[in-house]
Amino acid sequence: GAGVSQSPRYKVAKRGQDVALRCDPISGHVSLFWYQQALGQGPEFLTYFQNEAQLDKSGLPSDRFFAERPEGSVSTLKIQRTQQEDSAVYLCASSLQRGAGTQYFGPGTRLTVL
Amino acid sequence: DQQVKQNSPSLSVQEGRISILNCDYTNSMFDYFLWYKKYPAEGPTFLISISSIKDKNEDGRFTVFLNKSAKHLSLHIVPSQPGDSAVYFCAAKNSGGSNYKLTFGKGTLLTVNP
Question: Whole-angstrom Cα distance, residue B69 to residue A85?
């Protein structure tokens, strides 16, 4: 079956541009997560959705970061006015259960801000 | 402050021998631990987990050991195979709190030489 997919796989943005990163979770998965992985680091939690509800956005680094999952399936992570420190791999994961449960990761979107 | 630490950035072993990857944690609230494996250009894949009520969990060639008093866990791979070459991430969570939020270490690059 299809796993978690993300698009684009690579994105280059000029500083100040807005970007939108898409995540298609595994069909039927209730929970969806976004993580940021900087170079040489492990993934760091950004936000958590249960269906369409964003239950935790404590990891979003600034108000330039915004995530949505309006129909409880596809999710978009938007970064406004990108900065060089936003350069990272953005990973999306989904889980069948609410909250706890094995998280299945997508391949990530590598964002480079010039 | 890193709450999950993987102090060895890399490890190289011969095919057929044992690989031991180590992980330390500082947050005493963590009570569930996971290992993820990551190949280049792919997302992390769940490998094995252990609850703090156990001190060992085994799945085929993979065994995770947990020493709660030392706040230390290790992943043993026996025998190691070239296909095991990947980055291994240790992750932890508090199942009583935000039970979905994984905290990752920086990862250890395992290279298994034929």
Answer: 37
Nearest chain A Cα distance for residue B101, angstroms: 7
- Write the CB contacts of A10 (distance below 8 Å, at least 6 apart in sequence): A109, A110, A112
Pairing of strands B62-67, B56-59: antiparallel
User: Which element (helix H / strand E) includes A37?
Assistant: strand A31-37
DSSP labels for A20-32?
A: EEEEEPPTT--EE
- Of A78, A66, A71, whose CA–CA distance to A27 is shortest? A71
pLDDT by position in tens, chain A (length 114): 589 999 999 999 999 999 999 999 999 999 999 999 999 999 999 999 999 999 999 999 999 999 999 999 999 999 999 999 999 999 999 999 887 788 999 999 999 999
Largest CA distance in chain B: 44
Nearest neighbour of A106 by CB, restricted to B36, B43, B107? B43
Residues of A in contact with B37 (CB under 8 A): none
